[in-house]
Amino acid sequence: MIKSIVAIVFLLVLGGWYLSFLASRLDALHHRVETSWAHLDALLQRRAAIALEIAHSKAVDAATSLVLTAAAYQAREANIVERSDAEIALSQSLKLILADEVSLPSGIEGELLIALSAITEKIAVGITIHTEAVQSAHHLRSKSLFKIFKLAGHAPLPMRYSFEDDIL
């Protein structure tokens, strides 16, 4: 009788530890999603700043400058709901500049285009990391143990944004 009680208590403690381990793992994934988004957001803000510098350079015509400035400000100030559309608009505006890259003179504008190219590569890596973190969290949360025992708590389901597929 005592052996069976000890065995049941041991199994309950082991099960509780396992559930705690799974919840900690999910929490770590949620933290990874948040930090990858914060890093990606910082890169996107830097891209908008570079776009503003390009828009205010003398090598860009007035109409392109106006479009690029509007898109950059919209991307910098957009709330989370409008963020995807704003980033897509900025990407399309920057494609106008990159299409005319041959006609731009070297010097400061050339340095800005190099900085834009470098930040675009970093954004592509940041998007990959963020997407992978979101997929991992979705995969873990889809398991039945997480649903039955509500191991995610009240944490919102991580999400991807549509601009992540459309970035330069």
Automatic annotation (TrEMBL):
Question: Which named protein is this?
Answer: Unannotated protein
